[in-house]
């Protein structure tokens, strides 16, 4: 192939006039060429002549047609015409780029890539870039000589403006494609607008007639100053041919193309389009499959977009409903507060909530001399007298269990007194049995166990760790219980990871897993960490680390209504189930550590009988307080002087 040539014209001036002009095929296929000339000077005809000569010899090429001028080649040759309109054999997109490159190089199918039919120029550039990229990549392995003819090259590699990705890819093909067998020919009617680095690196050039001064300057600079004026006098189809393979500069008259001239200027004669050849059905079937798959993908994308739009609208509707529900909830809350203020005769307090607010309100009543609860006891006789009067009045009308505002403190005082009298064993019978808790039998509603009754067990008496913290009302008790149930459902290693996160925040799940006694299996570590995240027990702390959010979760589930002491108690209650972390292994005892913020330390050991101080719960009342004396006195003991006691104060947390 290295010695094969094609005849493209004859010398038209000089001593060699009339001699045929032959071009080496291998240099045309793999080299860099440039064809220029003003409109109508014959530049597109010269490009078509070279294409016809190569196709006659059975060599493949690709014509990048920007004006729809090359489909006339189908009059004589079986060439694939692809683009974006119905005039093409097949409508293609960027998804066809790899297949087109494979057909051109592996099966030797000549192709006309008609980018003039694309409505959006960005789509055309993206397709050309991807095709050139695929050709360049495949030529590294194929080493099959192949030529790209690119019309209006100045639009892709301009001299003054910046290049996009498509232009940079074509420059790459021009600089490095030759060693792989990929050649390129740029065609332009404005050489002044083409990047000069491309022109000066070309192996062969055809200069047709130019008249614009900026263009003739470029011709004079490349060919020589004498040719600046001579290039304006060339006839149609005539050009100055400059080539490195012959190291000559000749004035040449190019042959006329043999196929239908689709780029000719329309005249007054009737236009008759010749019969064009079609490509094989098998070849079209492969490309149509790609088109069908792309259409299905686009249809699916449209369906998903419609579904997404519907869901977005539904989300807006739900957000509107939620906002309306919030407004109604706020209105209901304001109404309930107004009713409460009207019933109580005092303003609703929002600075404190829950049971502690009730205790504070009763404490305020006691300070003002009103009938109040027995939560706080004082040593002065006035307080004890008011206490006895309130209890006597409640017992006399038979509604002591409803009117009493001590929230069970009296019964707890009686239980503590009984426990002190019989060695610490006391029980309280069910208030559902007649004649007991309601005081209708004239008793105080509690009694000690007799010989014939069941012996009370320690479980029947409130003890540390057996009940929810006393700060919590009925609606809050389930929060701690639910969290304890969640922790109990986790395996020991997962609970150990939570304990590790409390002491060592910002650890990765794998490090926490190993510290908790687990193995170094990353999948297992992240699975257990996922269980903790699903339960809102840990949160991401940045840089791949995690930390415990147990304290924040408890406060969140209480709607932010817990004070610091109550929150500390709740956290301590939940963390009883966490193991102690020692040297990367989980122990069986309760951990003693801190959470995201400071929390009270808690030990898992039960207090011994010999301990001088016992743990306080909401069931324990100091027995030597005035509260116990008031409970023992009864409704008819107002005049009995209580025994002297030291001033004490019992607070229910």
What structural class results from the helix and strand content?
alpha/beta
Distance between the termini: 100 Å
- Main sheet specs: 12 strands, mixed
Shape: elongated
> Mean pLDDT across all residues, rounded?
75
Draw up the topology in text:
Elements: E1 5-11, E2 20-24, H1 25-30, E3 32-36, H2 43-56, E4 61-65, E5 80-83, E6 90-91, H3 97-106, E7 111-114, H4 121-142, E8 146-150, H5 165-176, E9 182-188, H6 196-200, E10 204-207, H7 213-223, H8 227-230, E11 238-243, E12 248-254, H9 281-344, H10 354-368, H11 381-396, H12 400-403, H13 409-421, H14 474-489, H15 492-503, H16 509-515, H17 522-534, E13 538-542, E14 545-548, H18 550-557, H19 564-574, E15 579-582, E16 585-590, H20 626-633
Parallel strand pairs: 3-9, 3-10, 4-7, 4-8, 5-6, 5-7, 8-9
Antiparallel strand pairs: 1-2, 1-12, 10-11, 11-12, 13-14, 15-16
Helix pairs in contact: 3-4, 4-5, 13-20, 14-19, 15-16, 15-17, 16-17, 18-19
Give a structural overview.
Residues 347-477, 577-653 are annotated as: Disordered. Residues 287-335 form a coiled coil. It catalyses: ATP + H2O = ADP + phosphate + H(+); Couples ATP hydrolysis with the unwinding of duplex DNA by translocating in the 3'-5' direction. Residues 474-577 form the Winged helix domain. This protein is α/β, with parallel strands linked by helices. The protein contains 20 helices and 16 strands. It has helices at residues 25-30, 43-56, 97-106, 121-142, 165-176, 196-200, 213-223, 227-230, 281-344, 354-368, 381-396, 400-403, 409-421, 474-489, 492-503, 509-515, 522-534, 550-557, 564-574, 626-633, and strands at residues 5-11, 20-24, 32-36, 61-65, 80-83, 90-91, 111-114, 146-150, 182-188, 204-207, 238-243, 248-254, 538-542, 545-548, 579-582, 585-590. The strands form three sheets. Strands 2-1-12-11-10-3-9-8-4-7-5-6 form a twelve-stranded mixed beta sheet. The longest helix has 64 residues, at 281-344. The protein is elongated, with a radius of gyration of 48 Å. The protein starts with a strand and ends in a 20-residue tail after the last helix.
């Amino acid at each position: 192939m290295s010695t094969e040539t094609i005849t493209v014209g004859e010398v038209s001036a000089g001593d060699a006039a009339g001699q045929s002009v032959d071009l080496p095929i291998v240099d045309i296929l793999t080299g860099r060429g440039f064809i220029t000339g003003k409109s109508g000077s014959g530049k597109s005809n010269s490009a078509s002549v070279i294409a016809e000569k190569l196709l006659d010899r059975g060599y493949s090429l690709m014509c990048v047609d920007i004006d729809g001028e090359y489909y006339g080649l189908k009059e004589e040759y079986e060439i694939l015409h692809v683009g974006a309109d119905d005039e093409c054999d097949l409508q293609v997109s960027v998804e066809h780029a790899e297949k087109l490159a494979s057909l051109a190089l592996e099966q030797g199918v000549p192709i006309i890539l008609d980018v003039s039919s694309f409505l959006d120029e960005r789509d055309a550039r993206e397709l050309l870039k991807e095709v050139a990229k695929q050709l360049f990549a495949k030529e590294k392995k194929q080493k099959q000589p192949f030529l790209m003819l690119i019309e209006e090259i100045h639009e892709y590699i301009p001299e003054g403006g910046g290049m996009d990705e498509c232009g940079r890819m074509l420059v790459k093909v021009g600089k490095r494609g030759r060693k792989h067998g990929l050649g390129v020919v740029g065609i332009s009617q404005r050489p002044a607008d083409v990047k000069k680095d491309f022109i000066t690196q070309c192996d062969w050039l055809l200069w047709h007639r130019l008249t614009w001064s900026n263009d003739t300057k470029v011709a004079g600079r490349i060919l020589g100053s004498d040719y600046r004026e001579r290039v304006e006098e060339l006839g149609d189809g005539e050009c100055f041919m400059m080539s490195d393979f012959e190291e000559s500069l000749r004035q040449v008259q190019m042959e006329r193309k043999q196929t239908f001239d689709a780029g000719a200027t329309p005249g007054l004669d009737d236009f008759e389009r010749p019969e064009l050849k079609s490509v094989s059905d098998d070849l079209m079937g492969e490309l149509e499959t790609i088109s069908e798959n792309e259409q299905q993908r686009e249809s699916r994308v449209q369906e998903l977009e419609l579904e997404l739009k519907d869901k977005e609208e539904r989300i807006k509707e739900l957000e509107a409903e939620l906002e309306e529900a919030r407004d109604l909830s706020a209105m209901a809350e304001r109404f309930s507060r107004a009713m409460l203020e009207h019933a109580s005769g005092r303003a609703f307090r929002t600075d404190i909530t829950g049971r502690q607010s009730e205790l504070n309100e009763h404490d305020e009543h006691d300070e003002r001399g009103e009938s109040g609860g027995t939560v706080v006891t004082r040593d002065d006789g006035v307080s004890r007298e008011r206490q006895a009067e309130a209890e006597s009045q409640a017992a006399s009308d038979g509604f002591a269990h409803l009117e009493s505002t001590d929230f069970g403190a009296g019964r707890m005082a009686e239980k503590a007194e009984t426990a002190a009298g019989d060695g610490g064993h006391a029980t309280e019978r069910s208030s559902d049995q007649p004649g007991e808790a309601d005081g209708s039998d004239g008793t105080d509603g509690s009694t000690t166990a007799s010989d014939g009754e069941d012996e009370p067990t320690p479980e029947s008496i409130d003890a540390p760790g057996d009940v929810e913290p006393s700060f919590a009302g009925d609606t809050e008790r389930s929060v701690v219980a639910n969290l304890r149930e969640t922790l109990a459902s986790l395996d020991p290693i997962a609970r150990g990871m939570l304990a590790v996160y409390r002491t060592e925040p910002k650890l990765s799940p794998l490090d926490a897993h190993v510290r908790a006694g687990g193995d170094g299996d990353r999948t297992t570590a992240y699975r257990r960490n996922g269980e903790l995240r699903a339960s809102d027990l840990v949160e991401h702390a940045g840089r791949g680390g995690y930390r415990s959010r147990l304290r924040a979760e408890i406060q969140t589930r209480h709607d932010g209504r817990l004070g610091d002491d109550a929150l500390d108690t709740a956290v301590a209650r939940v963390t009883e189930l966490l193991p102690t972390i020692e040297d990367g292994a989980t122990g069986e005892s309760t951990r003693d550590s801190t959470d995201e913020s400071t929390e009270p330390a808690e030990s898992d050991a039960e207090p011994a009988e010999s301990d001088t101080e016992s743990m306080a719960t909401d069931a324990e009342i100091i027995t030597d307080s005035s509260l116990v004396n008031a409970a023992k006195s009864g409704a008819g003991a107002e005049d009995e002087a209580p025994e002297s006691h030291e001033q004490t104060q019992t607070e229910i947390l």
